[in-house]
């Protein structure tokens, strides 16, 4: 027995010694990484081993916006700014030439550090290898090529009737709010609207979330919040206090994917029966899978990946843009009157807006673009740079992640004079175009496929809102931002709503 205890003791000591040696080796490797990249400007690390992780955690757990920290770092340390997280190096790039070099090329893949985190959330598959997260270029290109017809200009022009019809449901809702002198959370209402729109035009389903309470909006918000904690706090899942929330996230992911499976099966059945089906996103998702000689379980999962990707991306950012736009216009009477006059001149009192009308709403387009400059709902994108590169004269050894912050560049005085002043004339047709410092939909081959879809929808909805209603923010509302991976108004833009008096 004594010999057994001695052996056990020596084994434990050996294992402890081995752990110590491995830890020491890792610390030496981290030191090597520091020596390799510390010539790049950057803020002081919070700690030797964890780098700037504590800064991210503080922002996630408080009301501070991490993107304001990025802006501060860019202004202090310059257009190429280093961040350390363990042995990973992230380079914040706000240099237009560097942005052009990396984002406009297909040779720099999506960042494995971030986008792999979106494959699943706490063990439940989330975005998987869909169009946004696919890192392999060939896998991405195959999906993108087949999805393109659903976003062609000809197809989008045919959606104007759906945009009008769904927007009218919101107008009816707001008319009831105005007549009964109730307050309205505009963020909630436009979120419900854009969710209904994407469900109808992309998947042929009537959700009617503006009428009925639906589990979908809450499921999407839960997934986005879970995504934020999963990416920025590696220890979140190990805290027992977080288990109830983690369970909610997993259930929300499961709801989206099981619903997607039902919708896909119903459409596949219709296609097999020879029924007429729209040439929408759902049809394209099924056609993507149909290119395979035989369907595997992974092919089925890939269909669901793209379902969830388009379902979330197709409504969340547009809703936030609309809410930010309403929020800003409530405090800018001169700009509000100018854009209302344009809407009155172009569409008058008619109910249906045409594609030709949209082309004439030039100042409204400027207002929406300026909204995305100050409030980019998707605040940045990232790429892996595996080979050595020189940006702004600084040599960057390969093996880093470059993060491009449209939030930071949009608020920097070097690119936009008085950047916090809301000025739609920055985007006047005759004004000089921003040079690789304004990219709310990213840039290059991996730019947002739904950009034109989103802006058509936003334009129709804003035109109808400006045509018919006046909004006043209620006391206590702030202009603060909230980070859920996408940026949204923290105070939810709660307004009193009145019908416009066109007789004035």
Automatic annotation (TrEMBL):
Protein name, per record: Cholesterol 24-hydroxylase
Function of the molecule: P450 monooxygenase that plays a major role in cholesterol homeostasis in the brain. By promoting constant cholesterol elimination in neurons, may activate the mevalonate pathway and coordinate the synthesis of new cholesterol and nonsterol isoprenoids involved in synaptic activity and learning.
UniProt topology in membrane: Single-pass membrane protein
Organism: Cyclopterus lumpus (Lumpsucker)
Listed transmembrane segments: 6-29
Pfam families: p450 (PF00067)
Enzyme Commission number(s): 1.14.14.25
Catalytic activity: (24S)-hydroxycholesterol + reduced [NADPH--hemoprotein reductase] + O2 = (24S,25R)-24,26-dihydroxycholesterol + oxidized [NADPH--hemoprotein reductase] + H2O + H(+); cholestanol + reduced [NADPH--hemoprotein reductase] + O2 = (24S)-hydroxycholestanol + oxidized [NADPH--hemoprotein reductase] + H2O + H(+); testosterone + reduced [NADPH--hemoprotein reductase] + O2 = 6beta,17beta-dihydroxyandrost-4-en-3-one + oxidized [NADPH--hemoprotein reductase] + H2O + H(+); testosterone + reduced [NADPH--hemoprotein reductase] + O2 = 16beta,17beta-dihydroxyandrost-4-en-3-one + oxidized [NADPH--hemoprotein reductase] + H2O + H(+)
Keyword Oxidoreductase assigned: yes
Locations listed in the record: Cell projection, Dendrite; Endoplasmic reticulum membrane; Microsome membrane; Postsynapse
Alphabetic keyword roster: Cell projection, Cholesterol metabolism, Endoplasmic reticulum, Heme, Iron, Lipid metabolism, Membrane, Metal-binding, Microsome, Monooxygenase, Oxidoreductase, Steroid metabolism, Sterol metabolism, Synapse, Transmembrane, Transmembrane helix
Keyword field contains Transmembrane helix: yes
BP GO terms, sorted: cholesterol catabolic process
GO CC terms: dendrite; endoplasmic reticulum membrane; postsynapse; presynapse
Family from the record: Belongs to the cytochrome P450 family.
Residues that bind heme: 448
């Amino acid at each position: 027995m004594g010999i057994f205890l001695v052996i056990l003791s020596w084994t434990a000591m050996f294992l402890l010694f081995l752990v110590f040696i491995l830890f020491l080796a890792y610390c030496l490797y981290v030191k090597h990484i520091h020596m390799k990249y510390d010539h790049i400007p950057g803020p002081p690390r919070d700690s030797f081993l964890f780098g700037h992780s504590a800064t991210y955690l503080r922002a996630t757990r408080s009301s501070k916006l991490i993107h304001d920290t990025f802006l501060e770092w860019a202004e202090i340390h310059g257009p190429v700014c280093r961040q350390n997280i363990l042995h990973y190096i992230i380079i914040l790039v706000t240099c237009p030439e560097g942005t052009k070099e990396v984002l406009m090329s297909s040779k720099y893949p999506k960042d494995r550090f971030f986008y792999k985190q979106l494959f699943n959330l706490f063990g439940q598959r989330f975005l998987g290898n869909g169009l946004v997260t696919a890192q392999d270029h060939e896998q991405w290109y195959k999906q993108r090529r087949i999805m393109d017809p659903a976003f062609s200009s000809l197809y989008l022009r045919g959606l104007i009737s759906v945009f009008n019809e769904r927007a009218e449901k919101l107008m009816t809702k707001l008319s009831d709010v105005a007549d009964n002198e109730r307050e309205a959370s505009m963020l909630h209402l436009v979120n419900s609207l854009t969710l209904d729109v994407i469900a109808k035009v992309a998947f042929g389903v009537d959700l009617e979330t503006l009428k009925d309470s639906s589990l979908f909006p809450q499921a999407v918000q839960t997934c986005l919040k879970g995504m934020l904690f999963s990416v920025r706090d590696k220890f979140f899942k190990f805290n027992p206090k977080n288990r109830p929330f983690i369970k909610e996230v997993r259930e929300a992911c499961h709801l989206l994917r099981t619903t997607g499976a039902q919708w896909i099966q119903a459409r596949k059945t219709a296609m097999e029966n020879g029924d007429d089906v729209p040439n929408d996103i759902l049809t394209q998702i099924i056609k993507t899978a149909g290119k395979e000689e035989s369907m595997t379980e992974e092919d089925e999962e890939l269909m669901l990946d793209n379902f969830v990707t388009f379902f979330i991306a197709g409504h969340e950012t547009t809703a936030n843009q609309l809410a930010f736009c309403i929020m800003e216009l409530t405090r800018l009477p001169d700009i509000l009157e100018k854009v209302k006059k344009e809407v009155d001149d172009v569409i008058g009192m008619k109910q249906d807006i045409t594609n030709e009308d949209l082309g004439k709403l030039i100042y409204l387009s400027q207002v929406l673009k300026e909204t995305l400059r100050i409030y980019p709902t998707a605040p940045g994108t990232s790429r892996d740079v595996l080979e050595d590169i020189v940006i702004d004269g600084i040599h960057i050894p390969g093996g880093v992640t470059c993060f491009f912050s449209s939030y930071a560049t949009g608020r920097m005085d070097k690119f936009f004079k008085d950047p916090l002043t809301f000025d739609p004339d920055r985007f006047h047709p005759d004004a000089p175009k921003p040079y690789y410092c304004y990219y709310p939909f990213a840039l290059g081959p991996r730019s947002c496929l739904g950009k034109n879809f989103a802006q058509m929808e936003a334009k129709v909805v804003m035109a109808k809102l400006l045509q018919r209603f006046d909004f006043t923010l209620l006391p206590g509302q702030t202009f603060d931002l909230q980070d859920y991976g996408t940026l949204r108004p923290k105070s939810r833009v709660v307004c009193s709503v009145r019908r416009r008096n066109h007789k004035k």
